[in-house]
């Protein structure tokens, strides 16, 4: 399995790329990439985003998906 910190970094890079994307198509592409890394993080053995006994997550990055806005260029 991939290094947990590497997955976190890659997810953050894709979120930043989505925020800085010039087109909506590029923004969507980078959001999807970030979500792919997010799913890999969720599947990772490290419990950072894994559900607890009650099914809640300590941190859910997907709650920020709609907050990634376009930046002015």
Kindly describe this structure.
It is a single chain. This protein is mainly alpha-helical and about 70 residues long. The protein is built from two helices and no strands. The chain has helices at about 5-20, 25-45. Helix 1 runs antiparallel to helix 2 (about 25-45). The chain is globular, with a radius of gyration of 13 Å.
Strand coverage percent? under 5%
Mean pLDDT metric = 80
Count of DSSP E strands?
0
Give the N-to-C terminal Cα separation. Answer: 38 Å
Write the layout of secondary structure elements.
Layout: H1 4-20, H2 24-43
Helix pairs in contact: 1-2
Short description:
By secondary structure, this protein is mainly alpha-helical. It has helices spanning 4-20, 24-43.
Notable traits:
single chain; 73 residues; mainly alpha
